[in-house]
Amino acid sequence: MSRRVRCWLSLIVTLVFFLGLFPSGTTAFAQSEIEFTDVDGHWAKETITKWVQQGLIKGYTDGTFRSDDSITRAEFMALVNRAFGISEKAAIGFSDVSANDWFYDEIAKAVKAGYISGYQDGP
Domain range holding 93? Predict the structure, then answer.
């Protein structure tokens, strides 16, 4: 990964965490009721709860958040897109991304925003 890309990624991650410090004026009432089964006693519970209320994160369909797991690239893109309000999508044709994948739209948004791209030898 080039130095320029690493610099941009570092900036994005820093901004996302910085945005988490401020309360949002709009919260999704349905999401504020979510209680994860695996965050009690976790050091990040307060931030997780706040980010859910802000609509930045959702957790898994089984009611867990899995806060000690590494974040995937798709989850990271979803977080960045929500934090910055990115909604425009580009047409994508990555061989490892199906239109049925939950992250398909998130990748399309990230491509349109210009902070990700495929490899030179093909999508």
Answer: 3-113
